[in-house]
Specification:
Radius of gyration: 23 Å
CATH class of the largest domain: Alpha Beta
Largest sheet: 10 strands, mixed
Structural class: alpha+beta
Number of domains: 3
Oligomer: single chain
Distance between the termini: 42 Å
Shape: globular
Strand content: 15-25%
Number of helices: 13
C-alpha cells in the first residue's frame, strides 16, 4: 500500500514491537475521526441539552467517553462552563499510571511540568484528593494563558499555574511526590489528526526533541522526592524519544521502572527498553481507538537524606474585618478555606495550598493560585470569573438561567435582553452550570464574561 507518511519514520519503526506497517498506514488513510471527551466529575450536566453524542466509555479512564461525531464545541455552553475537556483518548491513560503507582487518597504535591493546554492537568486535578496540591507549569509564555483559562474553567481550588523553565525547579529539591512530564516531541503520534505535524516532522527534529527531553528531565528531576513517582509521556512513535529516553533515565537518573497492569482488550503494546528492559506502553492508532502515544512510569530511588522546607514569609496580605465581611457574602464557607490579598486580587486557598504557595513564591513565577474570587474597589466587591467557575458562589447570590440562544449571546459578550426582576450582580447559568457574572442595571446589562475568552464566530 502506497503511503504518504514519511519513509524515514516507517523505516525507523520496522523493528519496534507492535508495529504493523500496513495496518499503520491504513489507519492513517482512514477518514474516520475519533473524538473523545473527559467529563468534569464536579460539574454534572444533562447531556440532552449538550452538543455531545456519547457512544461508549474510554476503557482506561473513569470519566472519558467517545463521541459519535465531532460537534461544534465552541457552540456548546457546557464546554465554556468547564463541564468537560476535549482530550485525545490515548492520553487519558495517564489515569492508570497515577492510580496504579500512587496512593491518591493521601495529600500529594504533584507537578505537571509541561502542562499547556491543560488536558493532563485537569485529569490530575480530578484524581487527587482535596488536600493535595497540583502545580501546572508551562515554559512558553503564549501557552500559559490558555493553561490558566482551562484550569480556571475546571474550577479546582488546589491548583497553581506557574511560568518557569524546568531548571527553575531545582530550587525545590525533593519537593514533589509526583512529577508528570508530557515532553515536547516530534508529534508523529498526531499525524492522523494534524497534517501540520507531518509537514514539520524530520529525523533531525526527532534528534532535537530527544536532546530537549533529556535536558528537561535532567533539569527537573532534582525536585522529585526520593521514592517519588515520575511519569513520562510523548505523542511520538520514535524510539529515540521513547524507549531510548527510558534507558537514558535508568542509566543517568537511576530511576526504577514500574510495570502497569494492562487489560488485553485495551490492545496497548507493552515494550521493553533495549538496554535495561524497562517497561513502556505504546498506543498505535491501528490497534487502539486513539492516536499515537507513549508512556512510562518510574520511581525515584529512596535515599537517606532528604530536604525539608519551611514556609517563608509570604507576600500576601490578610483581609480586614470589613473586607472579610463583604467577601463572606459572596463565597460559601468551608472548613480549611482562607482568603488572602495578592496585589488587587482576593484569592481563596485551602490550607495545603497556602503552605505550598508560600514556598513556591520564593523561587517561581506564579501566574495564578487557588481561586481568584474578585477584587475590592472602594468597598464594592467585583466578582471574578474564577468564582463563578469554582461552584463556591454563596447561595444568596441572585441567579438567572438562560436558554441556549441567550447563553451563546452571553458567551459572545453581545448585548443581553433578559426579562427578570433581578437587579445587581447576578450569576448566569445554563441548565444548572455557571457561565459567569453579569450586572443587571435598570437600563442595561453589563456582561462580565472575560473579553479574551469570548466566542468570536457566529
Amino acid at each position: 500500500m502506497e503511503s504518504f507518511l514519511p519513509t524515514a519514520l516507517l523505516d525507523s519503526l520496522k523493528e519496534v514491537k507492535g508495529f504493523d506497517e500496513q495496518a499503520f498506514i491504513q489507519a492513517h488513510t482512514s477518514s474516520h475521526s475519533i473524538v473523545s471527551v473527559r467529563l468534569n466529575p464536579t460539574k454534572s450536566f444533562d447531556l440532552a441539552h449538550s452538543n455531545l453524542q456519547i457512544t461508549d466509555p474510554v476503557p482506561w479512564n473513569t470519566h472519558g467517553y467517545y463521541l459519535a461525531q465531532r460537534p461544534s464545541f465552541t457552540l456548546d455552553p457546557f464546554f465554556h462552563a468547564g463541564a468537560y475537556y476535549v482530550q485525545e483518548a490515548s492520553s487519558m491513560f495517564l489515569e492508570q499510571a497515577l492510580v496504579q503507582t500512587c496512593d491518591l487518597s493521601r495529600p500529594l504535591r504533584v507537578l505537571d511540568l509541561c502542562a499547556a493546554p491543560g488536558g493532563k492537568s485537569t485529569l490530575i486535578q480530578s484524581l487527587i484528593c482535596a488536600e493535595s496540591v497540583l502545580v501546572c507549569n508551562e515554559v512558553i509564555k503564549t501557552r500559559v494563558n490558555v493553561l490558566t483559562e482551562n484550569m480556571t474553567k475546571w474550577g479546582g481550588i488546589n491548583t497553581v499555574v506557574t511560568h518557569n523553565d524546568p531548571k527553575d525547579f531545582q530550587q525545590l529539591s525533593d519537593f514533589f511526590d509526583v512529577m508528570v512530564v508530557d515532553a515536547p516531541c516530534s508529534g508523529s503520534g498526531l499525524f492522523r489528526k494534524d497534517s501540520a505535524a507531518m509537514d514539520e516532522w524530520s529525523e533531525q527534529l526527532v534528534t532535537i526533541c530527544s536532546q530537549r527531553q533529556q535536558r528537561i528531565l535532567a533539569d527537573a528531576l532534582p525536585a522529585l522526592k526520593p521514592g517519588g513517582i515520575l511519569i513520562y509521556s510523548t505523542c511520538s512513535f520514535s524510539e529515540a524519544e521513547n524507549e531510548s529516553i527510558v534507558d537514558w533515565l535508568t542509566a543517568e537518573a537511576g530511576v526504577e521502572s514500574i510495570s502497569l497492569q494492562i487489560k488485553e482488550d485495551w490492545h496497548i503494546t507493552v515494550t521493553a527498553s533495549p538496554q535495561y528492559n524497562a517497561a513502556g506502553y505504546r498506543f498505535y492508532p491501528n490497534a487502539v481507538r486513539g492516536e499515537g502515544f507513549f508512556l512510562a512510569a518510574f520511581r525515584k530511588p529512596f535515599s537517606v537524606e532528604t530536604n525539608s522546607f519551611s514556609a517563608v514569609k509570604n507576600k500576601f496580605d490578610t483581609l480586614s474585618k470589613a473586607e472579610q465581611s463583604i467577601v463572606d457574602g459572596w463565597v460559601k464557607k468551608a472548613p480549611g478555606h482562607c482568603f488572602v490579598k495578592w496585589q488587587k486580587d482576593i484569592l481563596l486557598f485551602n490550607l495545603a495550598l497556602q503552605q505550598v504557595v508560600s514556598i513556591l513564591q520564593s523561587c517561581l513565577y506564579i501566574k495564578s493560585a487557588g481561586i481568584n474570587i474578585g477584587t475590592l474597589m472602594r468597598d464594592e466587591f467585583i466578582p471574578s470569573h474564577g468564582l463563578a467557575m469554582s461552584g463556591l458562589t454563596h447561595e444568596n447570590i441572585p441567579v438567572v438561567s438562560l436558554n441556549e440562544e441567550a447563553a451563546l449571546n452571553y458567551l459572545r459578550r453581545v448585548d443581553l435582553l433578559i426579562d427578570t426582576a433581578t437587579k445587581g450582580w447576578t450569576l448566569i447559568r445554563f441548565y444548572g452550570l455557571a457561565l459567569g457574572f453579569a450586572k443587571i442595571l435598570p437600563n442595561r446589562i453589563n456582561n462580565y464574561y472575560p473579553k479574551e475568552w469570548r466566542i468570536i464566530n457566529k
